[in-house]
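Most newcomers find our protein records easier to grasp once they have seen one. Read left to right, the backbone structure tokens trace the chain's path through space. Once this layout is familiar, the rest of the handout is easier to follow. The record below serves as our worked example for the rest of this section:


***
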Amino acid sequence: MTPTPGQHTEPQTDPHTGLHPGQRTEPHTEPHTGLHPGQRTEPHTEPHTEPQTELHTGQHTELHISPEFPAVLHRIAELGPALDAEAGPAEERGRHTEDTVRALLDAGIVRAELPKSLGGYEFSPRQLIEMVEQVSHHDAAAGWTMQALQVMTATTAAYLGPVAAAELFPDVATGKHALLAGQGTRPGRAVPVDGGYLVSGAWQFASGMAHASHIHSAIQVEGTGELRVLAMPRSEVVLDGNWDVLGLRATYSVDYHCDDVYVPATHTYPATTTTPANGGAVYRLGLVNLSALGHTGWAFGVGRRLLDELRSVAAARTGTRNAPVDTSQFHAEYATAEAGLRAARAWAMEVWQDIEATLDAGELPTPDQDTLLRLTLNHATTTALDVGRTVHRWAGTAAMRRGPMDRFLRDLNTGSQHITSSPVVLQNCGMWLSGARPQARWTFLDLGQD
């Protein structure tokens, strides 16, 4: 990105942001991203039957910091005006156009999380958070759709063995690979048969399904109770077409079902695995922890956009008769919202920086780190909701009429209902941090048996 005039320039750039250390020092927003300066404050095979922790031969233990990060952010910034313009029509349509999705894919959003060994960029956690944040700042539904496609496609690429990887990811560098959407919190039934499973089930909230070629779904193996994740063609399921909701309408997060579909064992992996068949250290986070990255970035992007919208309303109304935005109370509440959002983002980046160091050392996240990454996501979502309440209170009639502010408020309130930000997750974090269950370990979003 181009430095803002008057900013100090250093000879080195931060590998996570692609920015010179002296940038983001002025009190205005960066024209390419619309983000405030305070947001960049961080130092800048075959499937196994049991989860594994040892490394595959030749697997990279160090965390990869992608040099492609600045270029991807730049391409997203260039798409910003088009995303803004398309957001309203996409909501009315209930999905984004294929042209919009293709432009985002060409920008590298899904490739960003795909394994480097398969031709992906393999971004680090903080790079992934910031990338989703930027897309979501332009269009919350686009950010949600792309982060869902991103994590489900990336985990499939990372955890499936060579047979499935060759079929689904033949040429990532040229865009020839599967796109996966689906749901993994309520498993279907998998009956073992020769070479695989007969799968039946009904799943919900398949964000991005309009653009997917394949399905990502959780299954539970009959007889053993083992939880696995599958990849199968979208043509094998029936889409229920029931996405009639208040917000995130353009994500096309429909329900779907299937009955007795054969899925080869080669196209499934243990749901709790932290051992990638492809790629490096970032995939030792596991499916649930990787999904937290996109949701965290989404909350910050949406929260920032809402504050930007409120600032625009304030600028238009200041000086008019009895304008609430001219009161000291408005200024105090705006400052409080700004401080809360920046503080939440800084803390999240601090937590993820610590996790990155653990991954770079060849280790798995500690139970404390597993707790904090869930807590920072919960806090990011709660903080964004607090921002939304402040925006709604002070925007007056501007929050009532169709437009970006109204759409972002509805998208935020819908997205905040996601299971990863539920009160139960917050309660589990509190049990661990307070010492109530010091021997417990996380399994998905629950604290397992002590």
The beta strands are 180-193, 196-206, 214-221, 227-233, 238-239, 254-264, 268-270, 442-443, 446-447.
